[in-house]
């Protein structure tokens, strides 16, 4: 019931203004009608806080890899609300790259699950795809591997969609895992967190846990995709820090985490 609520948390960005406005206006109406405080949440920060919906509490400082359709970010998190960008994608985000690769291979949409499912029946060694390591940088770049896949498909060098999916998935995840572990070791953090829709990818979860000597936390797959619980978890810590917004709260479509 409404009496069980202590406050209202709502996503204010980043995202499409129209969609964000619907949520914010409903949240403000509820806050006004029920006399509850309201706080605006960054959608990406919400993804990070999906890791707080488990039994144990993450340990600071930590490195978080946020991977979704629109973002591939490496963040240093020293405490609640304390973020530093360590690396970002320079072009396609990982989820965007999966969508484009699935389209190239004729596997359908959304690309992430389609690539993952097809890859289970494929041979990742059937074709060789490049990795953009960007020496000296913790940034990501996935446009090159996507273009390489397209050229191989157009040249008739990919024997099946499953083989292409397996090779592409390994190429992307190899870079994500290697760079995340390297940054975590360099920063001497206590934990690595995984967040965002692509964090539900089975191979990414498996490789990161297996290859890292630093403890890794991954949310349950159902909590990796967009959900209200992660926004509530983030809102809880914002309220604890005294971060309360007024009813003039507005959306910020291009909101950045740091």
Automatic annotation (TrEMBL):
Catalytic activity: L-threonylcarbamoyladenylate + adenosine(37) in tRNA = N(6)-L-threonylcarbamoyladenosine(37) in tRNA + AMP + H(+)
Gene Ontology biological process: tRNA threonylcarbamoyladenosine modification
One term of GO molecular function: metal ion binding
Residues annotated as domain Gcp-like: 2-232
Gene3D superfamilies attached to this UniProt entry: 3.30.420.40
InterPro entries linked: ATPase_NBD, Gcp-like_dom, KAE1/TsaD, TsaD
E.C. designation(s): 2.3.1.234
Keywords (A to Z) from UniProt: Acyltransferase, Cytoplasm, Iron, Metal-binding, Transferase, tRNA processing
Entry protein name: N(6)-L-threonylcarbamoyladenine synthase
Originating organism: marine sediment metagenome
